[in-house]
Amino acid sequence: MKKSHFIRTGWILLLATLVLGVSFITPALASSNIARHTAAHAQPAASTAISATVYLTLGMLQPKFQQGLDRQVPVDVNNDINAMVSSMPAQDQGWARTMATTLIQPTASLQSLVPQQNGLAMTILLSLYPGDPKPTSAGMLVSFSVLDSNTVQVSTGALNNTPPLSSGPQSTFQVPIGVLTTTNATPACGDSALALHLQIPVALGQSSLTSATSAQTRPAQASAAGHGNPMAVMLNSHKQDLSDTYTYIEIPAASLTSLNGSFGNIPVSGGFTAQNIRVTFEGSTIHILSDIYWSGLNLGTADTTIAPAASGGNLVLNVTNTNFSLFGLFNFPMNNYNQQIQQMLNSKIGNAFVNLFTVTHAAIGRNSLIPCAKSDSLILTGYSNLG
């Protein structure tokens, strides 16, 4: 068995390994696909959707690729050795297998994973045994496309006009929250490597919220394609170094303002009612405007200031103060309205990621880590709390 033969064989096995490794790139906020569809069908008329972008970082993806390589390369090479040895005469199989497994102890190291305009450029170094003086280096382009509303197609191709190690569709992974619309690599977006663009369900009533939360807390199950949610488990086993597992979610201002008209009315003490509740933005501050009615008469507008934050792993929309403009002529505080509007916002928006995503930080506007986000977007930083 010549070394050159094993190098060629090793690359074939390595390609299979990459396919397995890529299937582990389930987004950090993943739940089970079954749970998502259960929640969607349980209350079809009691929810709407907001647009959101999930940014997966290099710090998250690189160790997941490497873990897949570490797990599968030795196993696959050993299987290939067994297949070759089994074709030899029976009396020779024992010593041949022992010699081959003693000499061939392959390892594959991920050298780089670089976002490009059309995918992730991957470079790998394959050593056939410890101290291999001539490890083999090669690269490929890993690209991503939308297969259906909750599935990403993973494909490989040539990198920098070099002969491709593999070409065409290789695997898929599920995006079991919301509805997937597009996906793209993010070569000029700080820590981000891959962006998933989704429509995220938002509950419009307490009954819908209860149903959705119940569905989301069920254990992750395998998808129809045969992939479970191994990344969620791996993330939880590595929470001691959260910087490696951070994911970012961008919710644009336009997405939140699209909820205007869906909040309904809120009774206010003293027989008053808040109607036509709508979201607006002023710089890095969220405002909720409400028309205040009494006995059918529009008395004026309440302006509630909102400060997003993270508390207990959840997104919390804190009300800092409310000012009321009476007939547009007189202004005075109306802070007895604060608790009601805060409870309403958190039940509909703040709870959208409960049991799916642990929020560690929330703020308005792009930051140095995700510079491609919009300046008036709500940015959530966090990690998966499933497993």
Number of strands: 17
Biggest sheet strand line-up: 7-8-1-9-17-16
Q: Helical stretch count?
A: 8
Query: Which structural class fits the helix and strand makeup?
Result: alpha+beta
Low-confidence stretches: 1-45, 205-244
- State the share of residues found in helices, binned by percent: 25-40%
What general form does the structure show?
A: elongated
Strand content: 35-45%
Order of helices and strands: HHEHHEEEEEEEHHEHEEEEEEHEE
Commentary on this structure:
The protein has 2 domains: 3-228, no CATH class; 256-383, no CATH class. It starts with a helix and ends with a strand. A hairpin with a 3-residue loop joins strand 14 (314-326) and strand 15. The protein has a 6-stranded antiparallel beta sheet with strand order 7-8-1-9-17-16. It has a 6-stranded antiparallel beta sheet with strand order 10-11-12-13-14-15. Helix 1 (3-22) packs across helix 3 and helix 2 runs antiparallel to helix 5. The protein has 8 helices and 17 strands. With 387 residues, the protein is of the alpha+beta class.
